[in-house]
Amino acid sequence: MKRADATVTFGLPLHEDGGTDLQWTVLVAEPAPDNALVAHMRKRLYELSNANLRCTFGQ
């Protein structure tokens, strides 16, 4: 699997009810990575962004 140079940005859009959603975007240079690498990056970002949250709730 080829490594892709990527930039990750995070956002926390505020909803009218006061809640928020964690939103992340990965920007990569051309050529776009193959589907396997995209799936790997998505899974890794999910794990990194949610690991502490799961621990907080004892999961």
Rg from alpha-carbon coordinates: 14 Å
- Determine the structural class based on helices, strands and strand pairing: alpha+beta
- Give the strand tally: 2
Number of domains: 1
Reading the helices and strands in chain order gives: EEH
Approximate helicity band: 25-40%
Residue windows where pLDDT falls under 50 for at least 5 positions: none
Let me know the largest β-sheet: 2 strands, antiparallel
Specify the number of helices. Answer: 1
Biggest sheet, strands in spatial order?
A: 1-2
Give the CA-based shape: flat
Percent strand: 15-25%
The overall pLDDT, averaged over residues, is 82
Gap from first CA to last CA: 31 Å
Q: Could you give the topology of this structure?
A:
Layout: E1 6-11, E2 23-28, H1 35-56
Describe this structure in words.
By secondary structure, the protein is of the alpha+beta class. It has one domain. It contains one helix and two strands. The protein has one helix at residues 35-56; strands spanning 6-11, 23-28. Strands 1-2 form a two-stranded antiparallel sheet. The radius of gyration is 14 Å and the shape is flat. The relative contact order is 0.20.
